[in-house]
Design a protein that fits this description.
about 500 residues, alpha+beta, ten-stranded mixed beta sheet, four-stranded antiparallel beta sheet, 20 strands, about 35% helix, globular, disordered N terminus
Length: about 500
C-alpha cells in the first residue's frame, strides 16, 4: 500500500468532512500538541514530538523501555559491540515498507549517511549521528555503524531517533518528491496527511507486527498544533481532541471536574535552562553566573508551577544516567552575590540584555520568563523580554542567532547526546560555547565503556559546566496531560507520543 500525501483544497475539505463524521468501525485519537510540524522532510527538524511520530511511521530503529529501564529492539531487533568503534545491528526481517518491500541494511545505510549526515537540510546530524562517521551493509539484514572514536552511549543517539526511509523511493523520485508524495516507512503507522504548521495525520497498518500486538491501538491519529493552553483545554472539554499536552497547573481543575476526562502527571526528563552565548556581555563567566544566582527557581516552582516541577542543581536530576546528588557548585538564589559578580565582570552599573522565550511551547513559558525579568532587573541585569513565534525562535536558535533564551532539551535519559549537542565545541551553533577541558571530559565519557569510570567523567563534565554556566539549569517539569477516559495511555517522561502504545474504546 502506498501513501500519497497531497496538500490541496480538496484534501482539506475531505479531511474536514471526515473529521465531522466519525469513521464507522474505526477509532481516531486527536492530540493537541505544542511543537513544530513545519516540514515534509523527516530529517528537517530535531524536536521530540517529530522523532516520535516519524519513528512510528518509519521504525523505530530501537526504543527505550521505561518499564524495563533499558533499550530494546524494534527494526534493529538486536545488536552487539564488535569493537569500541564498531557496532553491529541485526534487522528484523518482518519489517516491510508500505509497498510490501523489505526494510534492508541498504535503507539504513542510505538514511544515516545520505539523509542524516550528508543532506544539508538535515537538522539531526549532531543529535542522531553523533560520533558515527560511516555505515556499512554487512548483508541484506545486518548493518555496521563505525564511529570516529569509542562511543559507549551510541544507543542514546539512534534509539527513538534514527528514521529509516526507502532508498529505492529516494533514488526514483528524489528527496523532495519522495518526502512529500511517496513517504514509505517500515513502522506500524503510515503518513496520511501533513499540513505544515497545522496538523499531521497517521493511519495504522493493521498488518504490521507491532500493530498486531495491540489491536486496540487507534486506527488513526491526528496531531493538531495548539500552542494556546486555553485552546487545548477547551478542545479537550469539547471532545475535539482526546489528549492534550502540557495542561498548565492552574487549569488542571477544569479538566479534573469533567466526568469523561482525567489529568495524568508524568515526571519529565526534559531539562529546562537559560542559554547564554559567549558574546558580550555573556562572554564574561561572571555575568553568566550572575544570571544563575539572580533567578529564584524555588519561588517560581512554588508559585507559578504550583509545585509541578523539580529544581535542577546541575544539568540533570534524579533518575537520569550519571546524576550526582553531590555535584558542585550549586547556583543557589543569591542576589547579592549576583550583583558582586556583575561588578567583577566590569558592569558595576548594570547591563542591558534581551531574553527570548517561546510562547506556548512549554508549560507557562512566557509567564515564567516574565517572572524572571524583575529578578534579573533587581541585580542590575536590565532585561527586555522578546516573545517571537515559536517556529521563528526555534529556527534562529538552531542557526545560532539568539544570544539569550529559555529552552528545554528533551529525551535526556543519558545526557551524553544533549551535552555534546549544546556544549561540545562545534557540534551545533545553538550556544556556540567552547571549552577544551569540557570537550576532553565529554570525549572521555563517550569513549569509556566502564560504567563507573564513565559516570565519573560525566560528573566532572557537569560540574565544570555548572561552574562555567553557559546555561543556567532550571528544573524538570512534572507534566500534566489531559486525557479522555476512553483512551488508555500512559504518557512518557520523554514527551514522545506513541499511538501503538494506546488502547482506545470505540
Amino acid at each position: 500500500m502506498q501513501t500519497f500525501v497531497k496538500i490541496s483544497l480538496s484534501a482539506v475539505l475531505a479531511f474536514q468532512l471526515i473529521a465531522a463524521a466519525p469513521l464507522a468501525a474505526q477509532t481516531r485519537v486527536s492530540i493537541g500538541v505544542t511543537e513544530t510540524i513545519e516540514t515534509h522532510n523527516p530529517y528537517g527538524d530535531s524536536v521530540s514530538l517529530l522523532y516520535g511520530i516519524w519513528s512510528e511511521v518509519t521504525g523505530p530503529f530501537c526504543t527505550y523501555n521505561y518499564v524495563k529501564g533499558d533499550f530494546e529492539g524494534r527494526l534493529a531487533e538486536r545488536w552487539k559491540v564488535e569493537s569500541p568503534t564498531i557496532w553491529v545491528f541485526y534487522l528484523n526481517k518482518n519489517y516491510k515498507f508500505n509497498d510490501g518491500s523489505p526494510v534492508t541494511a541498504d535503507d539504513v545505510v542510505h538514511s544515516l549517511t545520505r539523509r542524516v549526515i550528508g543532506d544539508p537540510q538535515s537538522k539531526q546530524k549532531a543529535s542522531v549521528a553523533g560520533p558515527i562517521v560511516k555505515a556499512e551493509a554487512v548483508d541484506r539484514y545486518t548493518v555496521k555503524f563505525i564511529t570516529d572514536k569509542p562511543a559507549a552511549p551510541l544507543l542514546s543517539f539512534v534509539c527513538d531517533r534514527l528514521i529509516v526511509t526507502s532508498k529505492a523511493i529516494f533514488d526514483k523520485h528524489g528527496r523532495d518528491a519522495a518526502d512529500r508524495n511517496y513517504m514509505l516507512g517500515g513502522g506500524p503507522y503510515s503518513l496520511k496527511e501533513l499540513v505544515p504548521g497545522q496538523r499531521l495525520v497517521i493511519a495504522k497498518r493493521k498488518d504490521h507486527p507491532e500493530a498486531k500486538k495491540n489491536p486496540r491501538a487507534p486506527d488513526e491519529i491526528v496531531y493538531r498544533v495548539m500552542r494556546e493552553t486555553e485552546q487545548r483545554v477547551t478542545a479537550l472539554l469539547n471532545d475535539e481532541i482526546q489528549i492534550a499536552q502540557f495542561i498548565p497547573p492552574h487549569l488542571r481543575h477544569r479538566v479534573e471536574k469533567a466526568p469523561n476526562l482525567r489529568i495524568t502527571p508524568v515526571d519529565s526528563i526534559e531539562i529546562m535552562f537559560l542559554a547564554m552565548q559567549p558574546k558580550p556581555p555573556f562572554d564574561k563567566k561572571e555575568v553568566r553566573q550572575a544570571v544563575c544566582h539572580a533567578i529564584n527557581r524555588d519561588q517560581i516552582i512554588k508559585t507559578l508551577l504550583e509545585g509541578f516541577a523539580s529544581r535542577l542543581d546541575g544539568p540533570i536530576g534524579p533518575g537520569q544516567y550519571g546524576y550526582d546528588p553531590n555535584l558542585k557548585p550549586k547556583m543557589n538564589y543569591d542576589p547579592e552575590k549576583a550583583k558582586k559578580l556583575l561588578a567583577q565582570a566590569g558592569y558595576p552599573n548594570g547591563v542591558d540584555v534581551e531574553l527570548q522565550t517561546p510562547v506556548g511551547r512549554y508549560t507557562l513559558d512566557k509567564q515564567i520568563t516574565e517572572a524572571m525579568v524583575p529578578m534579573l532587573n533587581a541585580v542590575g541585569i536590565r532585561t527586555r523580554l522578546l516573545t517571537p513565534e515559536w517556529p521563528t525562535l526555534w529556527a534562529n536558535v538552531q542557526k545560532g542567532l539568539v544570544p539569550f533564551y529559555y529552552m528545554g532539551r528533551g529525551s535526556v535519559q543519558d545526557p551524553s547526546a544533549a551535552l555534546h549537542q549544546y556544549f561540545h565545541t562545534g557540534d551545533t551553533p545553538r550556544i556556540g560555547y567552547s571549552n577544551p577541558k569540557l570537550d576532553e571530559l565529554l570525549d572521555k565519557e563517550q569513549a569509556e565503556f566502564d560504567p563507573k569510570k564513565r559516570r565519573q567523567y560525566l560528573s566532572q563534565a557537569m560540574s565544570l559546566l555548572t561552574e562555567e554556566a553557559p546555561a543556567c539549569f532550571m528544573w524538570r517539569h512534572k507534566l500534566l496531560w489531559g486525557l479522555h477516559k476512553r483512551v488508555d495511555y500512559k504518557p512518557l517522561p520523554d514527551g514522545r507520543i506513541y499511538g501503538i502504545d494506546m488502547k482506545v474504546t470505540r
